[in-house]
Amino acid sequence: MDTGTERHLSLDRYWRRRVAVLAGMAGAVAALAWACGGGSSGGGEKEPVRNAGAIDSAAPPMPPGAMPTVTVTTTVTPEAAEDGAPCNAHDLVFTMAAAKTYAAGQEPRFGVTVVNTSSASCRFDAGTLSVVVRSGKDRIWSSGECLKAGKGKRTLRRGVPSTAAFTWDRRRGCGGAPARPGTYVASLKGGKAGKRIFHLR
Predict the structure, then answer these.
(1) Max CA distance (Å), the chain
(2) Distance between CA atoms of 197 and 100, rounded to whole angstroms?
(3) How far is the C-alpha of 163 from the C-alpha of 150, rounded, in Å?
(4) Residue 140 contacts residue 134 (beta carbons within 8 Å)
């Protein structure tokens, strides 16, 4: 065999060895990838992937026998007062007016106003109102004892003021001695209103 033939055979054997080595390495890599990819689970079937987001967002089941809670709100509407019925005290607003100073010989006059705030007209007895005048702790005069004015029932329409006037003759009690000049306080009985402080000259 000549030298050219021997060199050709040597190159052929060299490349066969290289191909065999490369094939063996490729097979080893493939086997390793198969083992790491879950090839040992058997059957070649992949386990289905579960949707974690769908599981977490699902509402928990209601326990057996549990019933949903129902909240019922009831609104109570107050009944409107009947027209012509007696007035309720909490529906009435009272005010009392008086001058701050009365000259000598001038008789003090007190105006008491009542307003009905209910939704209907009502009957009010003005005779239940009276003005009491005091000087310190001394009770000087009372319209309920000395006057007849303002007596009698009246119909109060909603929001329409009704006024009763009480005039003091500047005497102690009913027709007693004249009251001295000074400071006096008038208060309302039969209704809630602010006191009035005034002066007699």
Answers:
(1) 172
(2) 7
(3) 9
(4) yes
- % of the chain with per-residue pLDDT over 90: 54
Q: Which two tokens stand for residue 19?
A: 């191909």
Question: How many angstroms separate the Cα of 21 from the Cα of each of 17, 26, 182?
Answer: 6, 9, 133
Phi, psi of 125, rounded to the nearest 5 degrees: -95, 105
The reported pTM is 0.58
Identity of residue 127: G
Token pair 């490729």 in the structure block, residue:
26
User: Rounded to whole angstroms, how far apart are CA atoms 187 and 195?
Assistant: 5
Mean local confidence (pLDDT), 77-93: 77
What secondary structure does DSSP assign to 144-174, as a single string?
A: HHH--TT-SEEEE-BT--EEEEEE--SBSTT
43: left (phi over 0), alpha (psi -120 to 50) or beta: left
pLDDT, tens digit (0-9, with 9 covering 90-100), for 20-52: 556 566 555 555 555 555 544 444 444 444 554
Number of helical H runs and strand E runs in the chain: 3, 11
